[in-house]
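Friendly challenge for the regulars: who can give me the structure tokens for this chain first? No prize, just bragging rights.
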Amino acid sequence: MITVLIVDDEPEIIRVARGYLEQGGYAVLAARDGTTALEIVRRERPDLIVLDLNLPTPPGLSPLDGIDVARQVRQMAGAAAQTPIIMLTARVDETDRIVGLEVGADDYMPKPFSPRELVARVRAVLRRSARPAATPEQIAAGPLVIDVTRHVVKVDDQVVDLTPTEFALLHSITIDRSPGL
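First reply, four minutes later:
Bragging rights claimed.
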């Protein structure tokens, strides 16, 4: 299941967004400040973050607004740095939107917002950020070996002559079932 992290200091926004996202088939995590959000990103690896630009600073901690959180997510190691981010904010200044996008936000929604539009934007951003699965160069199953890049099929190290259509059919069948057919 795809997991969405909502980061907002307003409990009502979290409640409404959670309800619509869960109804849309997403698992939802929530944080009310930047520090907690970063901990959740490191621990849970959400598939997408809905991030308020204005975040409070818990007592005794350094200030972390949405820009800071986005910047730190983009600096994380591995796949976490590629986590799509939708900025959600009441700020209407064009400069705020530009800064949000420049630090790595994938989309920007002003408050107040339509929860249905939020779900649609989550779907759209996830669709745009999806990476196609890598196709293996070779598919092997017992004595059968399909060399995808060279369009060669071997059984027990013997080349099998196939037409392009036969090769395409065999490849399409094995790609769905590999490894091990």
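The chain is about 40% helix and 20% strand. The beta strands are 3-7, 27-31, 48-52, 85-89, 107-110, 138-141, 144-147, 152-155, 158-160. Your move, everyone else.
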